[in-house]
Amino acid sequence: MTQRRSWMFLALAVALAPIPVRAQDASLWLTKPDRSALLQLQTPPLAFAGGDAAGQVIDVDEKQRYQTIDGFGFALTGGSAQLIAHMSAEARAALVKDLFSTEGDGIGVSYLRVSVGASDMNDHVYSYDDLPEGQTDVTMEKFSIEPDRADVIPVLKQILAINSKIKILASPWSAPLWMKTSGVARGGVLKPEYFAAYATYFVKYIQAMKAEGIDIDTLTVQNEPLNEKNTPSMLMLESEQADFIENDLGPAFQKAGIKTKIVLYDHNLDHPAYPLSILKDPKANKYVDGTGFHLYGGTVDAFTQVHDAFPKKNLYFTEQSVTDHRNEGEMDVAKPVAKIVIGTTRNWSRNVLLWNLAADPQFGPHTNDGGCTGCQGALTIDGDKVKRNLAYYTIAQASKFVPDGSVRIGSSNADAIPNVAFRTPDGKTVLIVANSSASDQVFSVRFHGKVIKSSLTAGSVGTYVW
């Protein structure tokens, strides 16, 4: 009896003893420039172990915490929505699931940009208050989002049925033509006497979309306010945007109880003085959530320059066209991942949006005389046929693994292997590594004192999840 009791106590002690916890194995999702691996899970998984690190070392430290991530995605331009809307019901449903679901092969796109009225990637120019020449409508009695009912609104509703929490940023390319000095779609300036009417225009837009079940999370005041070359487009200098925000748009949103965030600038990183000048104005500053940037000019460290000056204001990456017009051959995926996905998030951006989601084989639809004639979509849609392009894989390496609510954490920088790390809401660690060099790279990832050894061929991108 005594011996049996001793064995019982021994068994209980063993059962209650702490089990040594080793770091989880890391899964690797790989995209190679020769397309032999396209967001492909590699087997077997990589095991964290003790021992010395080999090659360059990326130290990942979740105690270093930076900005919260709102998501990764694309611009759902009017042209993109038109192409998707014209697909067969079966093909459209499959595509929407692939893009916005987190299950199976879905890439989990969690952020979208739409245009307020037409962008240059629409097949024609329109606003929500178009009038015959010489007429005005300062009270917005004729305002209507009817032009979006053919494609943008139904496609958004189908997306929201897959992911009801997707964030939507809206940007205007131009005010209604009767509000502008030029009276035409391309260029011109918003007349000061219509500032209040234009603020009402935005209030009406957000309210009308909400009535359709579509919440606009964020509004940029003007797409590319220093670019008059697109059709449509509109010039808006710093002083004009500050005046409009502090005296018209901000108060109009406040009076209407609108919680949509106001984001200023929405243009290239080569002119951080534009947002800084507005943020320095306390009357405008109080209405502004943050700044949006593009990367057709400038360098990503301008993000950090604005962050350091106004650390309580958010930063957003709102547009970049990523194109590869080669039909066959290698896909240069590491460079846009390194420059955009890694570069902007390492410099405080809460999101990454590429331009644009879809185009047809001729890079349309687009407006005439000022529409983008060479903007390749993340997808090329030809009827029900879908080709996934460079921009698709650039975003997918992040969007599939880094959901809304993730937080960027510390990871040591390495010149040959740019990287960024995140902690997801469900406690996973995600490390995105891009080998943008011309040679293969061997490196180690160190986490909690354990190491995994890995390598990436030249031009490849790996997303490590554990």
TrEMBL record:
Species annotation: Edaphobacter modestus
Residue span(s) of domain Glycosyl hydrolase family 30 beta sandwich: 405-464
Signal sequence region: 1-23
InterPro entries per record: GH (IPR017853), GH30_C (IPR033452), Glyco_hydro_30 (IPR001139), Glyco_hydro_30_TIM-barrel (IPR033453), Glyco_hydro_b (IPR013780)
SUPFAM superfamilies: (Trans)glycosidases
Keyword Signal: yes
Domain Glycosyl hydrolase family 30 TIM-barrel: 69-402
GO (cellular component) term, any one: membrane
GO molecular function terms listed in the Swiss-Prot or TrEMBL record: glucosylceramidase activity
GO BP terms in the entry: glucosylceramide catabolic process
Keywords linked to the UniProt accession: Glycosidase, Hydrolase, Signal
Stated name of the protein: Glucosylceramidase
Family per record: Belongs to the glycosyl hydrolase 30 family.
